[in-house]
Design goal:
- By secondary structure, this protein is of the alpha/beta class.
- It has 2 domains: 162 residues, Rossmann fold (3-Layer(aba) Sandwich), CATH 3.40.50.720; 91 residues, ProC C-terminal domain-like fold (Orthogonal Bundle), CATH 1.10.3730.10.
- The protein has 12 helices and 8 strands.
- An 8-stranded mixed β-sheet has the order 3-2-1-4-5-6-7-8.
- The two termini are 32 Å apart.
- It binds NADPH dihydro-nicotinamide-adenine-dinucleotide phosphate and (2S)-3,4-dihydro-2H-pyrrole-2-carboxylic acid.
- The site of NADPH dihydro-nicotinamide-adenine-dinucleotide phosphate (NDP) has 28 residues, from helix 1 and helix 4.
- Catalyzes the reduction of 1-pyrroline-5-carboxylate (PCA) to L-proline.
- Its EC number is 1.5.1.2.
- This is Pyrroline-5-carboxylate reductase.
Length: 273
């Protein structure tokens, strides 16, 4: 891989850039970025990472092995309309990280045999811990999928799924870090309410999340079994969990994921051809 072109230079593009550079997937100069209008942002990324920045679409796309669409879904049509006039060749893989938007919509703006791959990473790409799912469009072959999977594997784990799973993926792992940060926020606030010093609670909470994730990864037990192992009858965990049950927290989490998946589906329907 010699060149990756990002169309969109926001939070998610930066997370991927950071990860790709840390993983030495390609030299920083081989990572090209453009955005809509914010010159200062492009300069900032160039200064921070040594990436190449441009406003010239021909330069951006020329010889790019992979083109990553990383603007917000609302800006997709404008970006795709301008890509329509670009002379992409069928070896260039167009990857979209946009929530909701189907490969068929993207393909409708691109040459008829263009390989398109939909990917859903998350912000943990910044520290090479992303969970990414990738799904092939109709012209993306197994070699294209290998290239894209290996790109996302440099910034964490990547799994290939059918496109119909992408709304669920987006709701679970795309948005997932935000749910966990929400829980951490609540736990931090609760720590201070029960009298724990902020720096101590932060240290304990980070290690508690890390340890719980590693336990699930390294043991054969389910989350329910791991939880049961901590919950002695009449003990502290039982006292806490009974409040979560009374307040319907599990149902609220399930409703949260369903709402996120429904929103992804709705966004896909808004952008269909
Ligand atoms: N944030 C997350 O956790 C995740 C986000 N995603 C997806 O990633 C995408 C980007 O999100 P995020 O990085 O948070 O968004 P940001 O708002 O941070 O960045 C959007 C970028 O797109 C640029 N842009 C807008 N219009 C165009 C255009 N016509 N041509 C080129 N560039 C354009 C903006 O430029 P300018 O600043 O000049 O306006 C900006 O650089 C979204 O589609 C989202 O669904 C996927 C997984 C996780
Ligand atoms: O909220 C969003 O739209 C994006 C998609 C996945 C995570 N954040």
């Amino acid at each position: 891989m010699k060149k990756i072109a990002f169309v969109g230079a926001g939070a998610m593009a930066e997370a991927l850039v950071k990860g790709l550079i840390a993983a030495e997937h390609l030299p920083a100069k081989g990572i090209w970025l453009t955005n809509h209008a914010n010159d200062a942002r492009l300069q900032e990324l160039h200064a921070a990472y040594g990436v190449t920045i441009t406003r010239n679409q021909t330069d951006l796309l020329k010889d790019a092995d992979v083109i990553i669409l990383s603007m917000k879904p609302k800006d997709a049509e404008a970006a795709l309309s301008s890509l329509k006039s670009a002379n992409l060749n069928s070896k260039q893989i167009v990857v979209s990280i946009l929530a909701g938007i189907h490969t068929s919509f993207l393909e409708s703006y691109l040459p008829s045999n263009q390989p398109v791959v939909r990917a859903m990473p998350n912000t943990s790409a910044t520290i090479l811990e992303a969970a990414t799912a990738v799904a092939a469009g109709v012209h993306a072959g197994s070699e294209d999928m290998k290239v894209v999977s290996s790109l996302f594997k440099t910034v964490g784990e990547a799994v290939e799924v059918e496109e119909e799973a992408m709304d669920a993926v987006t709701a679970i792992s795309g948005s997932g870090p935000a749910y966990l940060y929400y829980m951490m926020e609540a736990l931090e606030e609760a720590s201070s309410q029960v009298g724990l010093d902020e720096s101590v609670s932060k240290q304990l909470l980070i290690q508690t999340f890390k340890g719980a994730a590693k336990m699930l990864e390294q043991s054969d037990l389910t989350p329910a079994q791991l939880r049961a192992n901590i919950t002695s009858a009449g003990g502290t965990t039982a006292a806490g969990i009974s409040v979560l049950e009374e307040q319907g927290v599990k149902a609220a989490i399930q409703a949260c994921v369903k709402a996120a998946a429904a929103r992804s589906k709705e966004m896909g329907q808004a952008f269909s051809k």
